[in-house]
Structure formats: structure tokens, C-alpha cells
Design a protein that fits this description.
alpha+beta; Murine Class I Major Histocompatibility Complex, H2-DB, Chain A, domain 1; Immunoglobulin-like; 2 domains; 19 strands
Length: about 350
């Protein structure tokens, strides 16, 4: 798999009191030959918080937040368990079809669907999206403006032609992304506001494998997920030789993120480096100063720590986001909001 992550964040004014944009996103992931991992996983996220989970091992759709049940009717989980079981079979068939189109046989392969919506509770603007990725690349995406599918790769053209011919289904998908999804998002935000609107301070640590290795600034346990982990050199923002990690979920509903700085021991002696962590909604900056290598050492990274992070991410979500999605122009179409009542739609057959 290309990577297991939840979101690629666009960080703005991190110290704003509350978020104006809310999101409801579903991720369906089918995989083949991935060791110790379910062949199908489905998760639902509200504002980056997992509220729904299903996998092919448990065969059950279950809530991950107490407030979800307040927004759901009594048959919600039975209905969604049935939907997920159907999607599981569809993904199993679809991944075999896509492998054939790419002239592939065995090996690790991942096919994913991401769909959902966003709502600005101040401006009232809404957006919707529905797209698929294969092995870390865009495969096909739905254009809400034209009610047509976009195929960025030749292997997806057959699927585009098939799905474009079903105009009724395409109209339903647009209606779901622009109306039903928004209605559910508003319900979830209302019932989960005590959780979704809270703030939790991060724990920040500096980690390093060896004196010649990059220094990792690791922030964890924070909420919301909007965070900036950056470096400063002698009091000025420093971006050279810095690698930024993704924001990942913890199993307690909080988040973690790392930033890696490559710096020589000599440079550390001559200059003052510090990691600065900013979490949206928390006015305080959280700062860790990188000590002189002769005066003190940062905490060494233990293999178990790295392994634990991977386990946490896999257990919580198991979601593969194709990294090139934002580079190919698959921008959610702007819509107006309205109301309806449904929780999803079966995934179409490739």
C-alpha cells in the first residue's frame, strides 16, 4: 500500500476559536494479498473523527462514537451492515477486473472509494465528492457539475462509458453528495458537537535514531486534527531539509503528526533549532528546543514506537489515500444545501 493515512490537511489560521467547515467522508478499501489485513474495510469520518467502522473479518457495521446512535434510526446499523457486505463483494470483483486491465496477476493491490461532502456552517456553502483510486493513483472520479465520470487513465475508460450510460444512478449520486450527505453531516455535527468542538493539548517529543539521523518532532494526543508542526532556526521559520509527515489518528480519537529535520551536529552547536506545534482552537504554541548534541541527547527512537504507530493506524482505519488526488484537478463541485434522509449508496460495479 502506498501509505495509510486519513487526511491531507490544508492548514490556515490554526488559533481560530472554532472550525467553520465540517466534513463527512466515507472510505471503502478493498485489498488483495495484504498480510494480516482485512480484504475489505469501510470507515466513516465526521470532521476527521471516525464514527463508523466495518471490515470483512467482523462482518458488522458498528458505531465508533456514542453520539452517532442519536442521529441514526433503529435500523441504521442493520441497513449499513447489509450495504457494506454488498460493497465488499463488489470490491472483490472490481479489484480482479482492474488487475486484468493493468495486466497484473498476483501481488499487493488496493482499490478504494472515497465519497462524502463538506459544509461551511458560516457561509452555507457545500461541496461533494465521489471518486476511486487504485494502487495509490487516481482511477475515476464523478464530476457533479456535468453528472459525468472523469477517467484519467485508459484502463478506466470502459468504466466511465458504463457508468455514464446509467443516467438515473448518476443523478442519484449527485443528489446524495449535494443533499442527503449534507443532511446527515448536519445531524452528526449537532449530536457530536461536545466531542467535535473540543480541544486537547498535544504531547510533543523530539526523537532521533542516531546522531547522524534526522530529528523527528512528534506531536500526539491533540484535537482537533488541524495542526501545524514546523521548525525554527534562530527564531525564524525554517523549511530547508524539513520533511512533513501526515496527520494520523490515535485509537482514542485524538491525532498525531511528525516533522523531520535533517541537521548536522555542528550546525546544532552553532544555531538554535526548535519545533513549534500549533493546534487549531488552542492559542498557546507548544515548543520543544533541540538541545546541543554535547549537552543533551534527544530521546532515541525505539523500534517498538514505530511499530506501535503503524499498528494504531491500521487498527483505527486502514484507509489508503491516493496522494496524487489533489494534483489532477478532481476538485469537489460547489453546490447548494438542502435536506433528505439516507446514509449512503451501494458502490457501482466496475
Amino acid at each position: 500500500m502506498k501509505g495509510i493515512i486519513l487526511l491531507v490537511l490544508g492548514i490556515g489560521l490554526l488559533h481560530t476559536a472554532s472550525a467553520a467547515t465540517h466534513s463527512l467522508k466515507y472510505f471503502y478499501t478493498g485489498s488483495s494479498e495484504v498480510p494480516n489485513f482485512p480484504e475489505f474495510v469501510a470507515v466513516g469520518m465526521v470532521d476527521g473523527v471516525q464514527m463508523f467502522h466495518y471490515d470483512s473479518n467482523s462482518q458488522r457495521a458498528v458505531p465508533k462514537q456514542d453520539w452517532v446512535n442519536k442521529a441514526a434510526d433503529p435500523q441504521y446499523w442493520e441497513r449499513n451492515t447489509g450495504n457494506c457486505k454488498g460493497s465488499q463483494q463488489t470490491f472483490k470483483a472490481s479489484i480482479d477486473i482492474v488487475k486484468q486491465r493493468f495486466n497484473q496477476s498476483g501481488g499487493v493491490h488496493v482499490f478504494q472509494n472515497m465519497y462524502g461532502c463538506e459544509w461551511d456552517d458560516e457561509a452555507g456553502a457545500t461541496e461533494g465528492f465521489y471518486q476511486f483510486g487504485y494502487d495509490g493513483e487516481d482511477f475515476i472520479a464523478f464530476d457533479l457539475k456535468t453528472t459525468k465520470w472523469i477517467a484519467p487513465t485508459p484502463q478506466a475508460v470502459i468504466t466511465k462509458q458504463k457508468w455514464d450510460s446509467d443516467t438515473a444512478d448518476n443523478k442519484y449520486r449527485k443528489n446524495y453528495c449535494t443533499q442527503e450527505c449534507i443532511d446527515w453531516l448536519k445531524k452528526y455535527v449537532d449530536y457530536g458537537k461536545s466531542t467535535l468542538m473540543r480541544t486537547v493539548r498535544p504531547s510533543v517529543s523530539l526523537l532521533q535514531k542516531a546522531p547522524s539521523s534526522p530529528v523527528t518532532c512528534h506531536a500526539t494526543g491533540f484535537y482537533p486534527s488541524d495542526v501545524m508542526v514546523s521548525w525554527q532556526k534562530d527564531g525564524q521559520d525554517h523549511h530547508e531539509d524539513v520533511e512533513y509527515g501526515e496527520t494520523l489518528p490515535n485509537d482514542d480519537g485524538t491525532f498525531q503528526k511528525s516533522s523531520h529535520l535533517t541537521v548536522t551536529p555542528e550546525d546544532r552547536k552553532k544555531n538554535k533549532y526548535q519545533c513549534v506545534v500549533q493546534v487549531k482552537g488552542i492559542k498557546e504554541d507548544f515548543i520543544k528546543v533541540l538541545p546541543d548534541p554535547d549537552a543533551a541527547n534527544v530521546v532515541p527512537i525505539i523500534v517498538g514506537v514505530v511499530a506501535l504507530l503503524l499498528v494504531i493506524v491500521a487498527v483505527v482505519v486502514g484507509v489508503v489515500i491516493w496522494r496524487k488526488r489533489s494534483k489532477k484537478g478532481f476538485v469537489p463541485a460547489s453546490t447548494s444545501d438542502t435536506d433528505s434522509d439516507n446514509s449512503g449508496r451501494a458502490v457501482p460495479q466496475i
